[in-house]
Amino acid sequence: MKKPLIKTLVCIGLLIGSHHFINAQEQESFQKLVKLPVREAAYDSYLALMRINIEQSRKEDGNISFTLFGKDGDYTVYLLERFKNKAAWEEHKKSVYARSTDAISPAATMHLSEETILKEIPEIPAADTEILSPEENTQNIITWFTVQPTATTAFIEAMSKAIPKARDTEGNLGYNIYQNAEDPNKFIVIERWRNPEVYQNYLQSEYSKKLNQDVEGLLNKEAKLKREVLKNISE
C-alpha cells in the first residue's frame, strides 16, 4: 500500500475517533457542586441574587436542575448545578443572571469557593428529584466518600443495589450518586427526604444497615468521611 493512501486512512480514522469523542461529550450530563463560604455581611444580598439565578436557570432548555443548600446559623452554602451536557452549561454561563452572580462571588465568598465537577455513573444514572413547597422540613444530606483505588468497582456495585431501594422508600424525594470527574476514587451522594422522621426510619432499615456494612471496608481509611445535613434554600 502506498504511503499517501496509508496517511489518508490514518487521518480518516482520527477524524472518526474525534467525532465519536465529541458526540460522547455532548451526550454526557454535566454536574457541578460548588461550596460557597459566604461572608455574613454579604449573605442576604448574595442569596437574593443567587435565587434569581436559580429561578431563571431552571427555565433553560439545557438545565436539568439547579439547587442551593444551606443550614441555619451557617453562612456556607452548596450549589448543585445539573445540565444536559457541558455545552448547555457553557451557554448558561453567558446569561446575564449567571454573569451577575459570578461577578460578585469572589468578594462575597472571600475567594474561598470550591468547585467539584461530577459525572453520572452508568450503572446508577441520576434520577429526577421531587421538589416540595414549602421546603422547611426536608432533610438534604450530602456525603463525600473516598474509596480505596482497588475498591471502586465494589463500591459502585454496593451502591447500585441499595439506591433503588432507597428511592422506593416512602418519603424519599431523591437519591443520587456522582463520581468525581477528576478522581475516580471519590464519590458524592446526595439524598433528599420529606422530613427528619422518614430519614431516621430509612437509617434503621435493613438495606441501609447492610449498605453501611458493605462499604465500610471499601473506604480509604486516611480520608475522613464527610456528611452535611442541609436545607433546600433555593426559593
Describe the structure.
It is built from seven helices and eight strands; from the N terminus they run H-E-H-E-E-H-H-E-E-H-E-E-H-H-E. The chain has 235 residues and is of the alpha+beta class. It has an eight-stranded antiparallel beta barrel with strand order 1-3-2-8-5-7-6-4, surrounded by four helices. The protein is globular. The protein starts with a helix and ends with a strand. Mean pLDDT is 90; it is low at 9-16 and 18-25.
Spatial strand arrangement across the major sheet: 1-3-2-8-5-7-6-4
Q: Which stretches of 5+ consecutive residues score pLDDT under 50?
A: 9-16, 18-25
N-to-C span: 66 Å
Which percent range describes the beta-strand content?
Answer: 25-35%
Strands, count:
8
What is the radius of gyration? 21 Å
How many separate helices?
Answer: 7
**H/E element string?**
HEHEEHHEEHEEHHE
- What's the pLDDT, averaged over the residues? 90
For the report, how would you describe the main beta sheet? 8 strands, antiparallel, barrel
Determine the structural class based on helices, strands and strand pairing: alpha+beta
Helix content: 40-55%
Question: Rough shape?
Answer: globular
